[in-house]
Design goal:
Layout: E1 5-6, E2 9-15, E3 20-25, E4 30-31, H1 41-67, E5 93-95, E6 109-113, E7 121-126, E8 131-135, H2 136-142, E9 143-144, E10 149-150
Antiparallel strand pairs: 1-4, 2-3, 5-6, 6-7, 7-8, 9-10
Length: 152
């Protein structure tokens, strides 16, 4: 179904005892043309969804650590089902377990998407709880895979 016309609504009234309503318009409907889509909208939506999932994983990690004396899980699977839903882990993620007393938490990478050559950005979750989209080339040159520290 497509929306082809638009008009301002003057009033809405019940129609008999049907549980339905009648819309009364204040002026004749006018035709609308095609709606322009956001450029690269699908990629932007995927990126935002990935960033949201990464953020949820980091929050789940915080809750786990709170319940386990400050220790983060050995594997992301340990967050399921108590801290995150299983379906959040369907995307391949790289998990870098943080040290118990990590410093500069805003630069410590906890989880990130597996690099996909089809996408120029990946979602990255940091130990301070924030997530951001990072250009793949920037990520590869700035993250120390051994320590999980992102050099800004």
């Amino acid at each position: 179904m497509a929306i082809t016309h638009i008009a301002p609504v003057k009033s809405i009234e019940p129609w008999k005892d049907s549980g339905k309503y009648v819309l009364n318009f204040s002026e004749p409907a006018r035709e609308i043309g095609p709606v322009k889509l956001v450029q690269k909208g699908r990629v932007k939506a995927q990126n935002m969804q990935a960033a949201n999932v990464v953020r949820q994983i980091v929050v789940g990690g915080f809750m786990y650590a709170n319940d386990h004396g400050g220790e983060w899980p050995q594997k992301l699977d340990e967050l399921v089902p108590m801290y995150v839903k299983q379906d959040l882990l369907q995307t391949p993620f790289i998990y870098l377990r943080p040290a118990k007393q990590a410093k500069n938490t805003q630069n410590v990478v906890v989880v990130h998407e597996k690099i996909d050559p089809q996408r120029p950005q990946i979602a990255v979750g940091f130990l301070d709880g924030h997530a951001e989209l990072v250009n793949v080339d920037q990520f590869q040159t700035k993250v120390d895979q051994a320590t999980g520290v992102f050099r800004r």
